[in-house]
């Protein structure tokens, strides 16, 4: 959830700026001894000045809706160009941004306890921090490649070839991927996940992290995310691709990207049908039961008529509260009290509904041999009943 930030918040954070700059510079020099001196010699900027400019730009745009990080984009494009001229890579710059992010997060958490910030305020600050870092790194990458002229075109062509290889239906060989990745200057991760985006919702113009491969023009646009288990990465990408709905496919090896894309794209279809909940960052693995059931709709409907008896024949407005109660009861291990707390109703109401459900079904609801089938069928009925009523 995104919180509206107080206009006084940047001034509060500015009072600690000097300490934060010193802490980031100290941590970076400890983490990468000697690199800062070598890197500073390649640019017209000191490490201290870059950190200062970055923090100033962050605070100046922090409460903008939405922030576009114009100062950071300009600064890091110039830095990337200077490093390119000196034939230096961007690794030290990326490390400095990562260190800065860690220090800032620690400071945010400490300030949250000190000033009583809500979880939403803390989450918004963190999201905007990592959006700034992603924007800065991509701007540096753009400046670096633009300085090299034709390299930009070559890099884009190689990245497109690599992207297409990673989601090819015929599973690619690992050697093929490594060869294509070398040409695209893309570090091969251990695992990837594919994020599919809703077809409608407007074109996204976000600057994505440089190691994320994207196809905006596909029938279902998608992002290939390397090492998706990295903290905050998925949430950062979900925020960057707003306002489109996003579905995240299962994490897979680099040779199995097509499978992750297949499930993510299918989940988008279910979101558009109203079967899966609309929102940002839906994970396929958290909705496996619904996705699996949707692959056999005819069987699920026939099974519902057989297993649920007269309950399946009720009008949607009468069936819905009974089905939701039954599903909650089954998911709560047959505990009416816990089911009532989940639904926000009294446990006696749960027990009354369960008696009514048993009468309508004409069979016990606690039959262990049918429990898994019943949960799957009732879950599917709950997902589709609103669609039936609307129709």
Word description of this protein:
It is a single chain. By secondary structure, the chain is mostly helical. It has three domains: 140 residues; 140 residues, no CATH class; 95 residues, PucR C-terminal helix-turn-helix domain (Arc Repressor Mutant, subunit A, Orthogonal Bundle), CATH 1.10.10. Helices cover 62% and strands 6% of the residues. It is built from 17 helices and six strands. Strands 1, 2, 3, 4, 5 and 6 form a six-stranded mixed beta sheet that branches. Helix 14 crosses helix 16 and helix 15 packs across helix 16. The longest helix is centred in the middle third of the chain and has 29 residues. It starts with 8 loop residues before the first helix and ends with a helix.
What's the helix and strand layout?
Layout: H1 9-14, H2 17-31, H3 35-41, H4 47-61, H5 70-85, H6 91-115, H7 119-147, H8 151-166, H9 174-184, E1 191-197, E2 213-215, E3 222-226, H10 233-240, E4 246-248, E5 252-253, H11 257-273, E6 282-283, H12 288-294, H13 297-308, H14 316-331, H15 336-343, H16 347-361, H17 371-390
Parallel strand pairs: 4-6
Antiparallel strand pairs: 1-3, 1-4, 1-5, 2-3
Helix pairs in contact: 2-4, 2-6, 4-5, 5-7, 6-7, 7-10, 8-9, 12-17, 13-17, 14-15, 14-16, 14-17, 15-16
